[in-house]
């Protein structure tokens, strides 16, 4: 009896040993080379967040709205991610995106080149997602989007980083009436001068669970205002789709030296998005019709307040600009992706603004009469 038990245990040990030897075996298909540098990328493991694909990526702007999704997408496929941040507490939650040791936080100062070098010197790809919607006494738009991008590109060029991805913005132009968009265009220019094969990405207005777009519409009940009478045409895009596109660029070296404009499949007027929010949230969401000159004056006064992060004169300028597609710019289709339309999944992001009485009701497009009746019942 004891002999048979011992034989069974020995058999199990042999099986475990064989399985372990199989998982540790690596072949030529586990080895890839960066075309630009010839640097080998060796894969370990069976794939996924607990494996290693051999790539090291640095993400600047990781604590922002888009940055958290980019870090998650990279870490989920086994990329070691350096999350460059200015506040460890704001970046702490990102360590859970990858397995132990896969997500590495490093402090940096955008005006200190040594700290930038420390963040990029081990990486084979760098993502610059840094952006500010408003200016402060320490950082202007040019300090962040233009000069900051130039310093990052110089640090990458001097340390042999193979790939550089610069995230800009739709409508970026040196002739734009918006200082934000002018600085974004200047950042693109500086990056291309230093790293000609850098990839430029211009996302449209992004929506998601933590955005400043749908949340502002659904949350500020009674405090909304129209700029340009709500006739501005935009192409909102999912932040997750943009993050996936950036993730694809990790290994798609065919994207080097190209410009991508990532926008949603459907064009909306701003007032149409408000109508969509009313239908889904089942709330009136009243709008104040204020002339553009008055709106800009109010924004100018609010911009003088300390710690104001809500509205600025430059934001009003941007809200008046239609999204214009650049001829020849590549899109999601060139990455073999199909972006999600806002109206098909908007209920996932706007349902939370409903009252408890109607929270579980389904949303059916064009059911406005029923929803108007619900307003009266709630009242």
Automatic annotation (TrEMBL):
It comes from the Eukaryota. The lineage of its organism: Eukaryota, Fungi, Fungi incertae sedis, Mucoromycota, Mucoromycotina. Residues 61-246 form the NAD(P)-binding domain. GO terms for molecular function: protein-containing complex binding. Coiled coil: none annotated. InterPro entries: ComplexI_NDUFA9_subunit, NAD(P)-bd_dom, NAD(P)-bd_dom_sf. SUPFAM superfamilies: NAD(P)-binding Rossmann-fold domains. This is NAD(P)-binding domain-containing protein. One of its GO terms (cellular component) is mitochondrion.
